[in-house]
Amino acid sequence: MVAMKINEDLQKERSKYNFDVEELTNFLDWGPQYTLRRRNLEQKVLNVKGLLDDIPEEYLSHKEKYENAVRKAVLYYRILQKENHSNISDEEKTRANFRNMISSAVFRDNSPFSLHYSMFIPTIKGQATEEQKAYWLKRANNMEIIGTYAQTELGHGTFIRGLETQATYDPETEEFILYSPTLSSYKWWPGSLAHTSNYCVVMARLFIKGKSHGIHPFMVQLRDEETHMPLPGIKLGEIGAKLGFNNVNNGFLGFENYRIPRDRMLMKNAQVLKDGTLIAATNSKLTYGTMVFVRVLIVNNMANLLAKAVTIAVRYSAVRRQSQPKPNEPEPQILDYITQQHKLFITIATSHAFYINAMWLWEIYFNVNKDLGAGKLENLPELHAIACCLKPISTSDTTVLIERCRLACGGHGYMLSSNLPQMYGLATAACTYEGENTVLLLQAARALVKAWSVRVEGKPLKGTMAYLAGTTAPKKWDSSVDSIVKIFQDVAIRKVSGAVETLKDYQKSGLSLEDAWNKASVCLTAASEAHGRAILLSVYKSEMDKRTASLSSSLKKVLLQLVELYVIYWALEKVSDLLLYTSITEKDITELQRRYIGLMEKIRPNAVGLVDAFDFRDEILNSALGAYDGRAYERLMEEAMKSPLNVEPVNETFHKYLKPFMLGKL
Ligand SMILES: CCCCCCCCCCCCCCCCCCCCCC(=O)SCCNC(=O)CCNC(=O)[C@H](O)C(C)(C)COP(=O)(O)OP(=O)(O)OC[C@H]1O[C@@H](n2cnc3c(N)ncnc32)[C@H](O)[C@@H]1OP(=O)(O)O
Ligand SMILES: Cc1cc2nc3c(=O)[nH]c(=O)nc-3n(C[C@H](O)[C@H](O)[C@H](O)COP(=O)(O)OP(=O)(O)OC[C@H]3O[C@@H](n4cnc5c(N)ncnc54)[C@H](O)[C@@H]3O)c2cc1C
């Protein structure tokens, strides 16, 4: 094997760590056994020939990009499918996949099968009867069929109750007739829908004997299994080029009186009997189950995206030298600039905070899911409320921080070969999909307003809302990490009480609840954000205290420095709230700022170690700037040479246009 030549600056950085990188990797992976599993899977995938692109995706046309993505998806998912067949529970599978990012070695812009795994299979699991599962899950797991989740329509994404696609039951033939009555009722957006899937779960409005019974899921065959032609009555196509997700084959779908048998309605929660009798679900929101599952997944996914982005930006910042602050001294590594550390170290800490919160959220999800299996629904609203805070906060923070990582790489960060712009595209999509962020914060606000009325009635509050029973009196400032975390709860109490007051005031002025809600909605989303931040901070702190107990003291110290950095960063970001609701003074704020700078100095020697511990192989980073060896300039040049424009020294446009133009002939 040829020894890898490592950039000297990076080599020096790697001699400075004061913790064990492998120990941190194991910690982030949820245990060493999962590190091993992840690495084995990565190796298996990377051993497959033809999976990695010779020509970068971005030089392909829209059509070629899709075709190349499908070619790779087939090779890639065959391996994944074998892994998923191994005999482990969903809970175990989740842990094993927690930091699985190998797909980003294969696709920079997501995959045409991602909806099959992230939504189609989970919907069958969550919405189908045992009998339906036995049939459909087997086919889906074997990838005999490829599916997607078709909910959003041209006219409605957010407002599910406004969906127009009709599923009318015909008791004569025991069939549902699917119909798209308007242009706005066309399904629009589902990934894989355009040319990849041959089946999908369609969310449609159920009509029985002329009466509407709300939205229900239906398993629908879209294409002939042999020829892949759209079936008669199905209108399918692709929605066109997007900011990102260009491998994902998002499509549109309309129905012209398309008939499906009765047993194609997924009937775990609600059933339509042969004679058209409807047995309604115990809770109509059970139909929204897949969305909750994906919202939970997203927090973990954002932690992974951030980890990748910051690995690239920190390694690049260690090899990049710029400016000359001290005369006659060499140009410093840009990582030594405090402003650069301010951009990057919070990104490392945020990734940890999201990992820890995602682990915590997964446990809640699995417990609630077990309860649902036993017919117990009482913890579902809380899970929904938490997901409606953490999904928006994690996606919007990730979007901001990936952009910050890109800016931290200067001009080179603007190159697609850095992979940072594509990661931005993936993160910002998540602010919209699976429930637009503002809309979800407003859902969480409903739960908070309800909780407030429970408090007013003097009844106990449960779980993540229990702290809302605390006093609304101004808080004495105390700068210990534990106290600041607690103060974020106090800020949330004040914001919730303020939002409820605003809402009530508008109602008292004569507005309807709906109009008052609309007028108070900026305060309401701010209250939800504050509640979400309070959860994020307290879970990060308390879980880290718990989980680091068994770690070496050196690693524990580094991890707790990041917790402190995160807490102080947010205290400074939200200083206006602290000034409003606590006794914090200008002197306290200056002290916090100094402490924040001091922490960055402590973290600085470990910066490269911290990102190395994310343990992303170069293929996964897929970036000219972030490779382990730090040869950023060489790779930028290698990538530039892949540009199709560099194939010939003179482009034909010279003869066709430039020359005649310069000679005044054009
Ligand atoms: C295991 C293996 C692991 C490995 C797995 C494999 C790994 C794969 C790799 C993974 C990588 C990860 C990345 C994935 C990539 C994905 C790609 C992109 C996918 C993008 C897909 C999409 O983008 S797909 C469409 C999503 N489209 C929405 O997301 C619509 C939002 N819109 C709403 O969601 C509703 O429209 C909205 C607003 C609630 C109002 O709904 P509405 O009008 O019916 O309700 P109202 O407002 O009237 O009422 C509200 C009352 O309902 C209660 N409630 C409402 N929802 C509830 C719920 N879910 N559960 C319980 N309760 C609920 C609430 O708590 C209120 O309760 P209360 O009344 O007591 O206050
Ligand atoms: C990359 C990508 C992939 C997707 N994949 C799928 C898929 O596989 N399957 C699928 O079914 N769908 C998919 N979607 C669709 C996605 O779920 C919707 O776009 C999303 O739910 C937002 O709905 P919308 O587009 O109707 O936005 P709108 O609801 O129209 O939002 C527009 C604006 O209106 C505001 N707004 C809307 N309602 C309210 C309200 N009640 N109060 C205050 N403000 C409001 C929003 O905050 C936003 O600012 C995908 C979308 C994207 C971008």
UniProtKB/TrEMBL annotation:
The keyword Zinc does not apply. Residues 20-146 form the Acyl-coenzyme A oxidase N-terminal domain. InterPro entries: ACOX_C_alpha1, Acyl-CoA_ox_N, Acyl-CoA_oxidase, Acyl-CoA_oxidase_C. Residues 481-662 form the Acyl-CoA oxidase C-terminal domain. It is found in: Peroxisome. It comes from the Eukaryota. GO terms for cellular component: peroxisome. GO terms for molecular function: acyl-CoA oxidase activity; ATP binding; FAD binding; fatty acid binding. Residues 288-449 form the Acyl-CoA oxidase C-alpha1 domain. The keyword Flavoprotein applies. GO terms for biological process: fatty acid beta-oxidation using acyl-CoA oxidase; lipid homeostasis. Pfam families: ACOX, ACOX_C_alpha1, Acyl-CoA_ox_N. Keywords: ATP-binding, FAD, Fatty acid metabolism, Flavoprotein, Lipid metabolism, Nucleotide-binding, Oxidoreductase, Peroxisome. Pathway: Lipid metabolism; peroxisomal fatty acid beta-oxidation. Its cofactor is FAD. Belongs to the acyl-CoA oxidase family. This is Acyl-coenzyme A oxidase.
